[in-house]
Design a protein that fits this description.
5 strands; Beta-carbonic Anhydrase, Chain A; alpha/beta; binds zinc ion; 8 helices
Length: 196
């Protein structure tokens, strides 16, 4: 599939169809054979970029039932952004011309729960907290589970930061070449919820 030929809405629907297969236990495990592997040696043409939590229960290729070379995935605890991650996503948008960038948070996120609990994070883990804490603060006034609401807020805030990011991503969004969306994965059901 040529990423340049498809729009963000089209590939988002493709992701969601794959997630419905995964959630229903009807995965096809597409494009994971040696033929596909060999076809990708000389280059890649992924059609979506995903910034997801590093949590072992949230592997994008599995929960969206996609194959080798389909998804450009960047992962970090808490689905937050920094310059290295942003540079990687900019490469996906400019170098690989993906039409969709999804920020994927999830339920029962340990990184978000740690910040929400006020735990004293050791070593470099403490560097994650400043990006997560504003979302925890916002979620404090919401009804429902604090950790899950805060994880949703992290995804929304990160997506907002990416949408406003100059000089690469924001112009692509304005020109309609890139769609950026936030989403939330439910561990218990296997489903992905799009966030407004
Ligand atoms: Zn997580």
């Amino acid at each position: 599939m040529e990423s340049t030929a498809l729009g963000g809405d089209t590939v988002l629907e493709r992701l969601l169809r794959g997630n419905r297969r995964f959630a229903a236990g009807c995965c096809r495990h597409p494009r994971q054979d040696t033929g596909r592997r060999n076809a990708l040696v000389s280059g890649q043409a992924p059609w979506a970029a995903i910034l997801s939590c590093a949590d072992s229960r949230v592997p994008p290729e599995l929960i969206f039932d996609q194959g080798l070379g389909d998804l450009f995935v960047v992962r970090v605890a808490g689905s937050i952004i920094n310059d290295h991650l942003l540079g990687s996503l900019e490469y996906a948008a400019v170098g690989l011309r993906v039409p969709l960038l999804m920020v994927l948070a999830h339920s029962n996120c340990g990184a978000v729960a740690a910040v929400a609990s006020g735990a004293d994070l050791q070593g470099h883990m403490a560097s994650l907290a400043p990006a997560i804490r504003p979302a925890v603060d916002r979620a404090g006034s919401m009804e429902g589970d604090l950790t899950d609401n805060a994880a949703r807020e992290v995804a929304r805030m990160t997506a907002g930061q990416l949408t406003a990011s100059e000089p690469i991503l924001a112009p692509l969004v304005r020109n309609g070449q890139l769609r950026i969306t936030a989403a939330f994965y439910h561990l218990a059901h296997g489903t992905v919820e799009l966030l407004s």
